[in-house]
Specification:
With 100 residues, the protein is α+β, with helices and mostly antiparallel strands. It has 3 helices and 4 strands; from the N terminus they run E-E-H-E-E-H-H. The protein has one domain. The protein has a 4-stranded antiparallel β-sheet. InterPro entries: Mito_Tim_assembly_helper, UCP017292, Znf_CHY, Znf_CHY_sf. This is Biotin transport system substrate-specific component. Keywords: Metal-binding, Zinc, Zinc-finger.
Length: 100
Amino acid sequence: MMQIYGVDVDAKGRCVHYHLQVDIVALKCGQCQKYYACYQCHDALEKHPFAAVSKDDSAPVLCGNCRQTLTFDQYQMGQCPFCRHAFNPRCRLHQTIYFK
């Protein structure tokens, strides 16, 4: 099973910063290639700042519910195409932090 890194991460990938029912998306850092619950967790635990990953990356997103990796286009659908769990629509507000 793919690991989701972060601060106080639960089994679905929710962290101390984002912990609603729909906060299940883990995002890949372009530098260390680890999936983090959020950029704040990443920056608290790593020695480098979170680096956006290309939208063309083959697996920039990980569903915390079923642990399937997703393409950017699959993530944009608003729910996991594998388990159908909804994603937090407000995550789009941070898109420039996570994707380039």
